[in-house]
Amino acid sequence: MARYRAVIDTNVLYAGLYSASGASHLVLRLIEKRVVVPLLSTALLFEYEEVLKRNRRSLGLTNRAIEDVLDGLCARGECRKVHFLWRPQLSDPKDDHILELAVAAGSADIVTHNVGDFAGASAFGVRIVRPAELLEELR
Fold first, then answer.
1. Which helix (H) or strand (E) covers residue 103, if one does?
2. Domain spanning 4-138: which CATH class is it, in words?
3. 65-114 pLDDT per residue, tens
């Protein structure tokens, strides 16, 4: 099976850690098995860390466990430098760095629950995919 490369939005990471019964958790399992390769940037890793640590109690994780999760993503992912910024492009400016990472990685897909937040990404050759849609495509 070919490895699928994508930018994993923070809401998918959070949902996958919060509940073991949904599509987001299965996406994280595919990352663990190296079927899905998460594309990473410094900005995205800082966002992951901030959101997960802020919500560590609801996730039932310690700071150390969160660091282990992030280390695992780094070990299985591909880091990309974003050299060009096209801001603003999206309705939520906090999501622009995710689109820029997808473009820098060669028009990679973005896996997210917030599909509407990425309207206009197709102009950059970026496809927006929900976790359940990704699982269906990978079957």
1. helix 96-104
2. alpha beta
3. 999 999 999 999 999 988 766 656 666 667 788 899 999 998 789 999 98
Give the span between the Cα atoms of 5 and 37, in whole angstroms: 5
80 in Cβ contact with 40 (< 8 Å): yes
C-alpha to C-alpha distance for 35 and 3, rounded to whole angstroms: 5
For residue 98, the one-letter residue type is I
Letter string b/e over residues 52-66, b meaning 16 or more CB atoms within 10 A of that residue's CB: beeeeeebebeeeeb
- CA 43/CA 81 separation, integer angstroms: 10
- Residue ranges of domains in the chain: 4-138
36: three-class secondary structure by DSSP? strand
Residue 109 has a CB neighbour count (10 Å cut-off) of 21
